[in-house]
Amino acid sequence: MSDQKYAGRRGGVADAVRLSVRAGVHLLLGGFALLTIVTVVDALGPMLALGLYTPPVAAWWTVFTAVVVQGVPFLLLGALVSAAVATLVPERVFARLLPRSPALAVPVAGAAGVVLPGCECASVPVAGSLMRRGVAPAAALAFLLSAPAINPVVLVATSLAFPGQPMMVVARFVASLATAVVMGWLWARFGRTEWLRLPARPASGPGTSRARAFVAGLQHDFLHAGGFLVLGSAAAATFTIAVPRTVLDLFTASAWVSVLLLALLAVVLCVCSEADAFVAASLSGFGPVAQLAFMVVGPMVDLKLFALQAGTFGRDFALRFSSATWVAAVAGSALVGWWLL
């Protein structure tokens, strides 16, 4: 019997090593391929665009490739850390650390968002798992909103996207955490049980190892978020180049209108929170408060996140919660932005 156990352990270690090596090779090859494609597109894209080699087209490619190249390393880092935390840290750890009182658990859960670097896609299943393990929904929802917005990867990316503007990092942290805590308290006070459909426990395959779960989570987070980064970068470049300056002046002339416009744009673009700072920085025609609103709203309310919430917690919940979160995020961005920026 001991020989069988020893052989099983050796097999498990060998399997983990094999999967780790495979994941490393895939990441190296994928990163090299992505950088090669971006380089070729940057160099040859304007010439291959059906002869439309004009200054606006060249400017579009410049903005697009700059946003993608700056955002990809943070997507990869966030996917690695997110997969490691999701695989190695059991959800019950969060439940044990939270106070029993929802009023106290909400700010603690909101601040705990710093321990889950990753995109907003990863926060939805984690919040559902916390609810299944007995965590108060208000605390789980505060964690859902804060995790993709205040983690170290996002804050470092914001500091690099806005060099020499440390208050932009501070403002993003304060506004995002305040919005998450306020929404948690609002749910604790006004939320109804019938609005929230608790997610069913996911069925895991028999014999699934941590190494396989890590690789699967890494591939999902990186590929899924990377696709939205490319789409968001293309949309931001198109918006920056195609919209005439005279039209842009109509929106930037009013601070309120510019804040509302970028808050709506964040919902549509669906840029991952680890790269949205670079997209916001590329929208240089808008003021810092509007850029802050883009970064605060995006990780909390966008089309893909609404779909994830509707599928996990129910459509009625997603409609109510997303609408209220958008209003709270815009108000928090405006107040914190005019206070700090």
Q: What secondary-structure arrangement, pairings included, does this model have?
A:
Elements: H1 2-48, H2 55-88, H3 92-97, H4 102-111, H5 120-132, H6 137-150, H7 152-161, H8 166-190, H9 210-242, H10 245-252, H11 255-269, H12 276-282, H13 288-297, H14 303-313, H15 315-340
Number of helical runs? 15
Low-confidence stretches: 48-52
Report the portion of residues in β strands: under 5%
SSE class: mainly alpha
Q: Biggest β-sheet, characterized?
A: none
Overall form: globular
What is the terminal separation in angstroms? 67 Å
Alpha carbon gyration radius: 21 Å
Q: What is the number of strand segments?
A: 0
Overall mean pLDDT score?
Answer: 77
Order of helices and strands: HHHHHHHHHHHHHHH
What does this protein structure show overall?
This protein has 341 residues and is an all-alpha fold. 79% of the residues lie in helices and 0% in strands. The protein has 15 helices and no strands. It has helices spanning 2-48, 55-88, 92-97, 102-111, 120-132, 137-150, 152-161, 166-190, 210-242, 245-252, 255-269, 276-282, 288-297, 303-313, 315-340. Helix 6 (137-150) packs antiparallel against helix 8. The longest helix is centred in the N-terminal third of the chain and has 47 residues, at 2-48.
Descriptive key words:
341 residues; mainly alpha
Give me a quick take on this structure.
This protein is mainly alpha-helical. It has helices at 2-48, 55-88, 92-97, 102-111, 120-132, 137-150, 152-161, 166-190, 210-242, 245-252, 255-269, 276-282, 288-297, 303-313, 315-340.
